[in-house]
């Protein structure tokens, strides 16, 4: 406080009068006053009239605090916030001692603004930033205004979590107040949402009753537990595990009719998934992705697994059953199995910009999907096991040496980017300096813009 006065006014306090409280009569405080040249005066015991100005101001503050808390029916533990707000208002109110000035103006030399003043304890709604909420969550949170901040923000109190926070994006409803007595009946009470792994359980408050049966044994009637569905499932129709349709089919199995298999053993039992696995292996062989060799003694082999995906049409019908053989790249070690993994990625903002320019200039647009794109990237020396249930008879101990990248490898995106980059450069395309996934080729009558995006 003393330093703040010196920094603001450029002058030191010469005399300080206090009562005989322990905080003012300690050795540390007396040494501080002596070292800074402050004359410390202590009033006589039980004579508050000697500090008439400060005592009268304390009475004014107490009356304001009591009125502010009673007006909005606020609990007493918020008296500190009410005291700070009352002091804030007094410093910005005119007094008889200072003609045509407020204490704040006399102190700082700047006339304070009162446009931001709001009723203490009034309801307000704080804007929740996009980073702190989900897509369907409320955009505002009900709060209570309890003070001001030096930066111009409002000091808000969350009655549900009992936390203090600051915000400038606030809407006020000064005519209403929080219902402190009955939280359940408060119309502004926020809803809460459960995660996927949580369920909402409500326990009935029933006391245990001790009952003695005919055999003389004592049986305790435990309180019953009534379970309710989570709030996120209240708009859905729910079925028990053993529910059946009118035709006698299990409902749960009907919902999983088009679900992907959980393992390759399950996929082999269905002809369409087995056909998709064979097509994936044929595509790998056609691209000369690997060669069957014996594993060198100083090398390690990476496992592979099958990933299944059902691709649907816009009307919900099945378009294609896709089976991909991927490497378990999380087993790779940096410096041993791979080095560089960076590959430029298409940004949606730039794609939208280019599409807008093309629409404005009436350019023709074409979309091309490279089938098994990562299989075209060339590798150095990586070994993977043979696909499960597709081992070559008589050579089960052999492994595949990858000549081209496989999905799941750490370096797969980079190898594909190097491949497509070298191809486009050979075709006469120029790479954009700022966005490395955009290529342009200028001819006499045409401008070709190529966007290489990996998804």
Question: Overview of this structure, please?
Answer:
This protein is an alpha+beta fold and about 450 residues long. It has 10 helices and 20 strands. The chain has helices at about 1-10, 25-35, 50-70, 80-90, 105-110, 250-255, 265-270, 270-285, 350-360, 410-425; strands at about 15-20, 40, 125, 140-150, 155-160, 165, 170-175, 200-205, 210, 220, 225-230, 290-295, 300, 305-310, 320-325, 380-385, 400-405, 430, 440, 445-450. It has a 5-stranded antiparallel β-sheet with strand order 6-5-4-3-7. Helix 3 packs across helix 4 (about 80-90). The longest helix is centred in the first third of the chain and has 20 residues, at about 50-70.
Distinctive features:
455 residues; alpha+beta; 4-stranded mixed β-sheet; 20 strands; 22% strand; elongated
Write the layout of secondary structure elements.
Elements: H1 2-9, E1 15-18, H2 27-35, E2 39-42, H3 52-71, H4 79-90, H5 103-108, E3 123-127, E4 140-148, E5 154-158, E6 163-167, E7 170-173, E8 200-203, E9 209-212, E10 218-221, E11 225-228, H6 251-255, H7 264-268, H8 271-286, E12 290-293, E13 301-302, E14 304-312, E15 318-327, H9 348-360, E16 378-384, E17 399-404, H10 412-426, E18 430-431, E19 438-442, E20 447-451
Parallel strand pairs: 1-2, 13-16
Antiparallel strand pairs: 3-4, 3-7, 4-5, 5-6, 8-11, 9-10, 12-17, 14-15, 16-17, 18-19, 19-20
Helix pairs in contact: 3-4
